[in-house]
Amino acid sequence: MLIFNVPYPGETFRLLQQSGIELTGSGFMSRKIFKLATATAIMVVMSGCSTIGPIGGGSASVQGSAKEQRLAAAGLVVSEEKRVKTRHDILFGPGSVKLPDEAVYVISDAAQYLVRNKRKTVSLVGHTDASGTESENMDLSIQRAFAVRNALIAEGIEAHRLEPVGKGEMRPMGSNESVEGRKLNRRVEIIFP
User: Fold this and answer.
1) What is the greatest pairwise CA distance in the chain?
2) 0.70 exceeded by the pTM?
3) What is the residue-averaged pLDDT of the chain?
């Protein structure tokens, strides 16, 4: 299974168009339509579905298990490791623990899911690129995980349900030899055990 790892919201719209998915309307997507479009894109990738109906103002027919559809509607996916996680990781700037503006969507989706599922806990797994020493990177990854934890607490989620973990540079998603690879490595994953 693949996970769409794209920025919000224009990139999703562009990817949907490139995928041959018919979009109606002016190209502007409200948050509600954007969430449906993103969930539909995820389900297309997950299920191999080749055609769906119009999204803007219409309805979409998507294949996949009921659980996958519920997760996608909540902004979540099942990773290749069979873990439920947010559709997007939160990507940070070099050496930064400041949450980027687009993190608000990921935080909101995770908070809404946790509000609806009172018994669920979440692991907030911070990562870095290979710039700096191992010790510095471990500290930075923990600080990033705590930044996401603090944002979820601000959304009303109880602290005891949030487990921040730092992995430093140990689990890269991309090559540390490229700018794009390092960008993917500076992230926090939100994982629901």
Assistant:
1) 52
2) no
3) 74
